Amino acid sequence: MPKNLLIAMRLFLAKRLTPARIFILGFIFVILLGALFLWQPSSASHGRLSFTDALFTSTSAVCVTGLAVIDIGRDLSTGGQIITLFLFQIGGLGITTFSVLFLGMMGLGISFKSKEIVQSTFIHNPGVDFFHILKSVVLYTAVIEAIGAAALFLCFLRYFTPAAALYRAVYHAVSAFNNCGYSLFSNSLMSYRDDLTVNFTVILLIIVGGIGFIVIHEITDRIRGFQKRLSVHTKMVLITTGVLIAAGTIFLYILERNHIMKDLHFVSRFLVAFFQSVTARTCGFNTVDIGSLTNDSILVLIILMFIGASPGSTGGGVKTTSGAILLLLLWNRLKGNQNVNVFNRTIPNETVTKTISIIFASAFSIVLITSFLLFTQPFQSQVAQSRHFFLEYLFEAVSAFGTVGLSLGVTPQMNTAQKLATVLLMFAGRVGPLTFALALTLASRKKSIVYAEETIMVG
Known about the structure:
Blueprint: H1 3-16, H2 19-39, H3 51-62, H4 72-75, H5 78-93, H6 95-105, H7 112-122, H8 130-156, H9 162-177, H10 196-211, H11 213-224, H12 232-256, H13 266-279, H14 295-307, H15 320-334, E1 340-342, E2 345-347, H16 349-375, H17 383-386, H18 388-401, H19 416-431, H20 433-440
Antiparallel strand pairs: 1-2
């Protein structure tokens, strides 16, 4: 190939491969590669998965969603299960993170764009040491997953052989920390509903994985005395996470105490409510049948799933900080403040505008896919018999976008078009609707045009 042609191709790619597009293409590559591996006969325990099911499973794993059209423990071979484990481990930390780490270990140079992607994923303050944070991310992940696996191993050892117990412990620990929710048990963790060790181990893994690595890093440095105060970001994440978990637990306990939990004693009721409140925000494990919950409880779960985890974490949703900023915006405006003030600090207007855009784009994406799922549902002659599909598809859409994985049981019954639409929503939820839209937008260096202002009536 002529040298001039190579130079022209490099310039063409350098101009169009923005960080957002590199981020998107990285996820697409791993998803397709995972789908091809899962499509092989050796990955299935019986026969062979259809390519649609393999693509759905790979997307759900890489996007750490946990929605499944197959039974992971029954329909996949051990090799297929290990493939999903690698996929949600890579997806949880980010494809670019592993690429940068590998290049660093090999002593190779790291492009500015790759560094920018990882930095925007894990670091809210550009002044923080990039490589120090990256090493900390890998170290925290390894240590936390190892501790979680050890705790689950001691529990599973009562029911399985040492080898089987270790395998299940590692799989569920990695799945919980990466907020995926894939389980080797057909009923998720319903068999361990009253097991304190399993409940609190999984809960802690989900919470730690969902608050974000920069928060973990700041808390660790604060405890060790390396940092005098926590950032506004960390304070907002911790407070919002605590409020959501507490509120979810209280509401679920009240709403289900005379229904699905009526035959349980107090400790079991608390565990059920607490576990579902934590897992609904981003993971997808469940200790009770979600389809048996009341409509009120399902509404609570939808709200928790939509908000999701925190920025820079392994979870999805619009993020806890977005929800907090929106409430702070309303509160400050009610008090007559034009700025969003919190902890004696002012949130930049650019961040507030981005938050509103994220929430709107997320809600629009969910409405769009929910509508598609309803329109592609096979015709039902009796309207009353098909009324339940609206709630079920809305729940699945929010779960897919929030990369949660909880389901009312309708996912395995979807047709091909519905599965592909859900795949797109899971992907958009993991990379972010604004990032997805930005990657599809042609880059332009033109300055935005400002015209004369004219007011309109609103409200």
